[in-house]
């Protein structure tokens, strides 16, 4: 992995425009080797990236989605997140559902 890219950039590329909300920014992703495989990337907006509470909320969202999906709930599957990597920008990659 190159030093100046985040882990998700090894497998995914951004597609289309990003949409910002109160705390997060979401972007559609396409897998680099299978463009039919789509996902959603959620990151913390830049002004909150170093805020421990914002990181904690994204961690809780990631853990909750994973647990609910594992229990059979109709929520997006979590493909990857900053919880699987050391010292990276907070991010969540989840299944794209139309």
Short structural description:
The protein is an alpha+beta fold and 98 residues long.
**Count of runs of 4 or more consecutive helical residues:** 1
User: Major β-sheet, in short?
Assistant: 5 strands, antiparallel
> In which range does the helix fraction lie?
10-25%
Q: What is the spatial order of strands in the main beta sheet?
A: 1-2-3-5-4
Query: What is the succession of H and E elements?
Result: EEEHEE
Topology:
Blueprint: E1 12-20, E2 24-31, E3 38-44, H1 52-70, E4 78-81, E5 91-95
Structure write-up:
By secondary structure, the protein is α+β, with helices and mostly antiparallel strands. 19% of the residues lie in helices and 34% in strands. The protein contains one helix and five strands. The protein has one helix at 52-70, and strands spanning 12-20, 24-31, 38-44, 78-81, 91-95. Strands 1-2-3-5-4 form a five-stranded antiparallel beta sheet, with helices on one face. It is globular and about 35 Å long. The N and C termini lie far apart (31 Å). 19% of the residues are buried.
